[in-house]
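Hi V.,

You were right to ask for the full record rather than a summary. Here it is.
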Amino acid sequence: MTMAYGEGTDAEQELTARLTEVAHAFIAGLNAQGRLVETGGADTLRRLREENQTRHSPPEAEPGDVEATETPVLPAPGAPPPWEAVVTPRAGEDTSGVPASSRPLHVLGAPEPVPMSANAPGSYDAPDGTPAPAEPAPARQAAAPAPAFARSADAQEPPTAGDNQTQPSAAVTAARLRAENAGRLEVTQITSDHTCVTVHIHAMSLADWEYWLTAIGAPLNAPTQRSGWVQTATGHLDGVEVRLTADVVPRLLEEAAQRATEPFCLGGRVYDLAVGHTDRLGQTWHYNGQREEDNTPCFTLGGTSGPPYPLTSILMANGPLTPAAADPDRSETR
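Predicted structure:
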């Protein structure tokens, strides 16, 4: 077939015009995206691409390092995919990262029957139809050092407990006193040093003072000391010396002695010998008017003609003693 020149001129012109428009639009798009380079720019882009590849490419291996660099990159022929070594054990019982209840549900919801090892480590948020090969995240989770970090954190707790056990006994005793008496208003402070505990109170009554004499383990017959308007006493708790300092107590003791008919002070307490005193067993003792050589009063058990006993002996054996109701008949006979 012979094409006559001059035929189809209009079609060729229309096609040329359309190709020109397409070329202009294509060039305009490249220019807008910054992909159009000037003359010589292609060589510049090629040079930059080569430099970028050179900078990010791994260094050339030394002859002695060929085995170390090539082994992790190129697996041996016929070896399973890299993730199989991590995924397969997750089907066992020693996998702690995936709950046992979620694993069978995930397998049952899978579109294809696949081994549990290929589907078990799937993400909890991923849909049931996610293929097993497209799940590299479980491999990273299994290889992450989070479980080892948790065990190392737990390993720090025994030294901390040991440090608490090696605290001085005085500090432990002071902490116990603070905890047991946190609600008492008369307490000013409870401190400790290496050997003893110091308790400071502002007594509002003799009941506060007597409570702390018992709390620090002070013997009922142990003497107390007065220094101005401060009364001090010493006791022992669990082998630790406890020193009690109480404000206002000297004045309270003086007032109690003034109210008593026949006062006698022993162990930081005022006993009125004119009334009977009941011991912890419910027995009432009465002063019989006799005293020891050291001026300690003697008592006899009420309702008996038994022998007299020194007040100190009664306190140590059956104390503490509390005042009993006054006996009018006994008061008249004395």
